[in-house]
Specification:
The protein has 15 helices and six strands. With 337 residues, the chain is mainly alpha-helical.
Length: 337
């Protein structure tokens, strides 16, 4: 291939193809799945990008195959052509034939490598990382077409790569894991507060929310020597009187130290004067003090209970209302309520 025009066209085409495969590879790795999902409702390209993200290992195999073919093609076409053009130039400058041949080979290798590395790899990589969702959607459809044509080969190559991974004890995955664990989030919150990019109020709220993973009921319950309660035989008037005296809207219904249920003062307002607490009470939710707060919140939500009796070694140590947990999570809101 001695025509400069043909060589230039082929070289530009191969470098552009390499840039395409590199950009696709980094775009699908860096793109946030939830952003692609938001755009998928109105964008065919976003839907194609989502499908590629769901079979990432096959897509990466396709990208690597494309990059490898482009690299080999550049080495087989552009480098020999440039070498062929440069060798006579060095001979005309008076260099011996062997030196002109070596110098032409080295310079051709440098030129082709520079173009391929900078224009065909580094530049598209930086663009894809800077605009992951945009680049992923722009390149998704042509990449899906390439994957459709080469799928049998890509699947075979991917199976071989996965087999090698399993032999060394690594489980291959087809999707990039998203999200952060609580420790990483906690570090991010603390760092943001330290450098001043996170308001102190929000820092406190976020830190409190992250504490819920390890915080137990025993750590937030206020020990009570004698929780506010009424007897099963207490009348509606007595329930209202006890609620007024203690300031609590929910009261335990106890008999001989055993908790039978919980009664809300609201239920006594419309009850007949002779109605007893046993008739108005609801089942009591009893949870051990060692239970994590987030588990207790889940149980309270599922059972629709706003009050929990906290026990330790079978003994009641106190009561926790849903408002107590919210006050710990959002101190200002809790104080306001």
């Amino acid at each position: 291939m001695s025509s400069p025009v043909v060589v230039a066209v082929v070289t530009i085409g191969l470098i552009a193809a390499s840039a395409f495969f590199v950009a696709v590879e980094f775009a699908l790795i860096a793109a946030r799945r939830h952003r692609l999902e938001d755009a998928a409702a109105s964008s065919r390209s976003a839907r194609a990008a989502l499908r590629s993200a769901s079979e990432l290992s096959v897509l990466l195999a396709g990208s690597q195959l494309g990059i490898t073919v482009c690299t080999l093609a550049l080495g087989a076409t552009t480098k020999p052509a440039v070498h062929h053009w440069l060798t006579p130039l060095f001979e005309n400058w008076g260099a011996p034939l062997w030196l002109a041949d070596v110098a032409g080979f080295v310079l051709a290798l440098i030129i082709v490598t520079f173009l391929h590395l900078v224009v065909g790899e580094m530049a598209p990589k930086s663009w894809a990382i800077a605009h992951p969702e945009k680049s992923a959607t722009m390149l998704a459809l042509p990449m899906r077409a390439f994957m459709w044509v080469t799928r049998p080969l890509l699947v075979r190559l991917n199976h071989m790569a996965n087999w090698c991974l399993r032999k060394v004890g690594v489980d291959p995955v087809d999707q990039v894991a998203e999200g952060q664990d609580p420790d990483a989030l906690r570090h991010l919150v603390e760092h943001s507060a330290t450098v001043g990019t996170l308001d102190e109020r929000y820092h406190g709220h976020l830190s409190s929310a992250l504490e819920l993973e390890t915080l137990t009921l025993g750590e937030i319950v206020t020990p009570q020597a004698e929780p506010s309660s009424v007897k099963p035989t207490s009348t509606a008037d007595e329930i209202r009187e006890t609620a007024h005296r203690t300031g609590h809207l929910r009261l335990l219904v106890r008999a001989d130290g055993h908790v039978d249920g919980v009664v809300h003062v609201r239920d006594s307002l419309q009850a007949a004067p002779g109605t007893t607490a046993a008739e108005l009470m609801r089942p009591a939710l009893t949870i051990d003090a060692a239970t994590p707060v987030y588990e207790a919140l889940t149980t309270m939500r599922e059972t629709r209970n706003h009050l929990v009796t906290v026990t330790e070694n079978g003994r009641i140590v106190g009561l926790i209302a849903l408002s107590d947990v919210l006050a710990r999570l959002l101190p200002m809101s809790g104080a306001a309520s």
